[in-house]
Amino acid sequence: MERKYWVPALERANNVLLELAGQPSKLKLMDLSAATGINKSTMFSLLQTMEALNWVNKEKGDTYSLGSVFGVMGNAYFAGMNLVKQFEEKANHSMERLGEAIQLARLEKGELVYLAKKEAATHVRLISEPGMRLPAYATAMGKMLLSALDNDQVLALYKEGSYQAFTPNTVQSGEELLKQLQVVRERGYAIDLEEIALGFCCIAVPIVDRNGSRIAAVSCSMSVHQWPQKQELAKHEIEQLAHALSVTI
């Protein structure tokens, strides 16, 4: 990484955390100062801040250990990794039953991030690939996940006039988006009718964690010619897949 944009305070905090990960509940302020080369006054400030953020715990005997925030982050990280693995194992059945592409994605701010895809053996290929990002408002999975947010939170994600028109059917305003999200909330699923790419339709449902929070979505995409006869079967199959993925995380 270019050092021009380096943040020394973050590097110092990272060094402290690495020391604590290697020797939990054994190091005091003086030990950490000696191990990292950070002077005592700076170390005091770092530890005070990190303790307030739950990055570290100060224990009896004035030693330190990693804080609870890393348990939360670690669980989230491994849940995400496990989710992709589970999708790879479980999505084949739905893909083969439908003969259409099945995808997995999550929401990051206003963008949909594609995590995995099972593509059927057809001549038609989707534009999306794992790692790709698209505006959430233009996709079925994106709208499914946006519908879990308050309207004010949704509007804050996109500036009026900035909505990108991928096709003539793409949502073009916050007002229009909120109307669509209300329909999604009432239905419990979201659809994309040639909104991200002409010739393609998509249906999406959410994946939830043990607390009922939506952490990702799965979808089935197909050509507009297949949509009338396959829409209901696709809805059933991805609901089954989403349920299977939800109970495994």
From TrEMBL:
Keyword terms of this UniProt record: DNA-binding, Transcription, Transcription regulation
PANTHER family: HELIX-TURN-HELIX TRANSCRIPTIONAL REGULATOR, ICLR FAMILY, HTH-TYPE TRANSCRIPTIONAL REPRESSOR ALLR
Organism superkingdom: Bacteria
Domain IclR-ED: 69-249
SUPFAM superfamilies assigned: GAF domain-like, Winged helix' DNA-binding domain
Protein name: Helix-turn-helix domain-containing protein
Domain HTH iclR-type, chain residue ranges per copy: 7-68
Organism: Paenibacillus planticolens
